[in-house]
Amino acid sequence: MTDEAEDGGITFADLGLRPELLGALSGLGYEEPTPIQRGAIPSLLAGRDLLGQAATGTGKTAAFALPILHRLPAGERGADPMALVLVPTRELAVQVSQAVHRYGRELDARVLPIYGGQPIGRQLRSLQAGVDVVVATPGRALDHLGRGTLRLQDVQVVVLDEADEMLDMGFAEDIEAILQELPENRQTVLFSATMPARIEGMASSHLRDAVRVEIAREPARPGGAPLVRQSAYLVARPHKPAALGRVLDIEAPDAAIVFCRTREEVDQLAESLNGRGYRAEALHGGMSQEQRDRVMGRLRGGTADLVVATDVAARGLDIEQLTHVVNYNVPADPESYVHRIGRVGRAGREGVAITLAEPREHRMLKTIERVTKGRISVEKVPTTADLRARRLDLTRAALAESLLEDDLDSFRVVVEPLADEFDIMEVALAAVKLAHEAGGAAIDEEEIPEVAPGPTREARGRGPGGGGRGERRGRTPSRGMARLFIGAGRHAGVRPQDLVGAIAGESRLSGREVGSIEIADRFSLVEVPESAVQEVIGALRATTIKGRKVTVRRERVAPPR
Ligand code: AMP
User: Fold this and answer.
1) Under CATH, which number does the domain 2-214 receive?
2) What is the pLDDT of residue 384?
3) What is the pLDDT of residues 13-39, one digit of tens each?
4) What are the tens digits of pLDDT across the range 106-125?
5) Which of 63, 93, 173, 243 would be a feasible disulfide site paired with 40, CB 3.0-4.6 Å?
6) Which CATH superfamily is domain 458-554 in?
7) What per-residue confidence (pLDDT) applies to 219?
8) For ligand 1, is residue 266 a contact (CB within 6 Å)?
9) Is 33 close to ligand 1, i.e. is its CB under 6 Å away?
10) Which residues have CB under 8 Å from 326's CB, separation 6+?
11) Sequence spans of domains, the chain
């Protein structure tokens, strides 16, 4: 996390956090603090009470968790908690506990979620064994207080997280009762997405000389230049990679930048988009300047379609060719949204800004709309039927283009004899079918469930959605690339990731160097760098794909047109 300094941004180290926390954050791929973290952490480290207005998606959890962990004594610790975090739901209790646990890994922080619905016995045993941070729903916390199993006399910090939600859920009295049990000289922190009078009242009776931190209080400059079309898709986390793939299939950007939160997310998403047949490049602060320049060169030169980047790495980039900006998550504040989408729609050209939001982040989306005074239309994730329709459109467009070319005569020898025997419409339909299928018109069949805005049950227990199959078309290979024919396709269960995996596993190429992939019923076409053709052919012939030996050769040159 030293590379941010060159960009002039504030780092986590600048905020004064201890080395064990910096190590954990770096390990998680966080490159720089979000605005709410920059605003809250110094005051919290100084021991001030704090009233923070921030919704899910802003990074508020780390904003309060890091200062708590910063206080953990290095040596022996007592059995009773030094911090208590109250949250409205069991999902949030689990989520916040996991976050505190991750940030506190190098400090061996003992964190325990306690919530209703879980057998109380297990919670009792963990409490007896000793904990540093308890994350609890108010009802269950009160239960434990009544039984004498939760002792709060050592609590130095209490956090009321999503306080407005807790009040809406009728926890006001429980919270009051819990606060009565806490030491007078504790630090009190209150986070709320909205600041109705009841929250202000609660703050004025329980917070002392509190610092206020809000994100997006000042309107940012009017967001979304008129030429930027802004849309958002609500989608549950496990389905995000597949949803993004579909949106990109429909939008077909010339050049796009996809913003992620962390380095890990950047690497994973770049890999998954490559598997879908996009030429995606990762760009993050862990890369040298030279590596970053190379990536940008590929996007500018058209040998990459997408760059997947963190904010830090993309800072200051100006890419003329850019048509789409994609937020893989809702940005942590409206400023950063405006800044990101300002990269398209320049110089009178049309640009598109796309945001994927989890249902819980819907509120943040509304805040961005309000602050930027821009409209973000919430769209449905394209269905498999939409994709089919779009692919037929593409086939129609390709045929129309071909009809305008005057080099079709050499195919008369094919069509004329058939026309004697069949209706010409039938002949055309069969030809279109072949062209369409050869274009790799594979569709990921898994439907992506529609989700409603607002707090929802967590979608759990499912693997990443999609497993989408690639679909890139084009009659000639991209510059510097050669196309290989592989004698196994959809019928053999081949997916793009199998081909990328086989090539990356068996040759010196990385997955990212593999170009576009088309999968037809009985064969596949894969682009690889011209310089590596022989090596890849040799490597693939020596191995198996989906358990079978397959034909691998350079694709035959298309018949003259
Ligand atoms: P929260 O608003 O606390 O629910 O956090 C939203 C998401 O942002 C979580 O997935 C965090 O892991 C992630 N996050 C929080 N802080 C940062 C940061 N400084 N850089 C990157 N990701 C972050």
Assistant:
1) 3.40.50.300
2) 82
3) 999 999 999 999 999 999 999 999 999
4) 999 999 999 987 788 888 88
5) 63
6) RRM (RNA recognition motif) domain (3.30.70.330)
7) 46
8) no
9) yes
10) 244, 247, 248, 256, 257, 258, 259, 353, 354, 355, 356
11) 2-214, 228-379, 388-433, 458-554
CA distance 83 to 70: 12
Q: What is the DSSP string of 291-332?
A: HHHHHHHHHHHTS-SEEEE-HHHHTT---TT--EEEESS--S
Which of 1, 21, 32, 34 most suits a substitution to test ligand 1, by most atoms within 8 Å of the C-beta? 34
Please tell me the residue having the least CA distance from ligand 1 atom 13: 59
> What whole-number distance in Å separates Cα of residue 191 and Cα of residue 203?
10
Distance 18 CA to ligand 1 centre (A): 19
> How many other C-beta atoms are found inside a 10 Å radius of the C-beta of residue 147?
11
User: Phi/psi of residue 256, each to 5°?
Assistant: -140, 155
What is the atom index within ligand 1 of the atom nearest the CA of 99?
12
Phi and psi torsions of 180, nearest 5°: -60, -30
User: What is the three-class DSSP state of 165?
Assistant: helix
What does CATH list as the number for 228-379? 3.40.50.300
**Fold equal for 2-214 and 228-379:** yes
Residue 460's pLDDT band (cuts 50, 70, 90): very low
Q: Nearest C-alpha to atom 8 of ligand 1 is from which residue?
A: 59
C-alpha triplet 527, 528, 529: angle, nearest 5°: 130
Within 10 Å of residue 23's Cβ, how many Cβ atoms?
14
Say if residues 350 and 325 touch (Cβ distance below 8 Å). Answer: no
Other Cβ atoms less than 10 A from the Cβ of 60: the count is: 27
Radius of gyration over every alpha carbon of the chain, rounded to an integer in angstroms: 28
Burial string for 368-380 (b: 16+ CB within 10 Å, else e) reads bbebbebebeeee
Q: Tokens for 392?
A: 């037929």
